[in-house]
Amino acid sequence: MPALAEPLIAWYRGNARDLPWRRPGFGAWGTLVSEFMLQQTPVTRVIPHLEAWLERWHTPAALAAAAPADAVRQWANLGYPRRALWLHRAAVEIRDRHDGAVPRDVDALLALTGIGDYTARAVAVFAYGDRHPVVDTNTRRVLARAVDGRAQPGPPAKGDLAAMSAILPADDAEAAVVNAAAMELGALVCTARAPRCAQCPLSDRCAWRAAGYPDTGDERRKQARYEGSDRQARGAVLKVLRDAAHHEVPQDDVLADWPDARQRDRAIDSLIADGLVEAVGGMLRLPR
Ligand code: SF4
Prior knowledge:
14 helices; Endonuclease III, domain 1; three-stranded antiparallel beta sheet; binds iron/sulfur cluster
């Protein structure tokens, strides 16, 4: 077994959080929805939204039968609302191309709207138990430090999958645990700003620690400020439309008192371009 795998498995068995998508029988649809939500949003915010979503749409076909507007409304304030639209489109594709069952094959998953390298493999591994490398931001940081001796990972690259593959055991079930363990270690112990090496199962094999924690630079993109951003304006426009009693609002009334009118117009135009908002006869509404 690769050197890092054994300590990661042992640590995970004693320290992993009890999260809904890790419980037996959670199912491929639940896993897919949870991965869409977790792409940009912290676990604690996702859990209540995930439960409500799955209670309302317990299969891809159920979501596919709903209007896209319902998906955007249900997404509420989870952020990056294009994910709601993409998830709805993916549900339609699953119904139409896969008889309503979330596919197991990574290429078939990658062909669905809104699904990239991470989500496709996460579903194949965590829902179906297949053996693939699953690489998220936390995993990339653990690999950068423990294997490459760098303080932070570089930008995402195709080589990330090969790097993760190199530490996976041959057995499918053990490989799934190592994938989950690397992510969990990055989330709980090997955090971006303050790694807790004294509690780390890899501390005696970590290349960055062994080298004395050299400052190897940080190429990560800084998260843009939300306050005052176009993202904030987009979120405010969508909230008006989600809350609208008659499901549509005259365009001139949407954020009429927003401090930057050009930013408001830009937000509306970009939401229309993304398919999150429709403009019909001077009215704005969520997509039908
Ligand atoms: S020893 Fe420290 S830096 Fe290395 S993997 Fe563990 S927590 Fe991260």
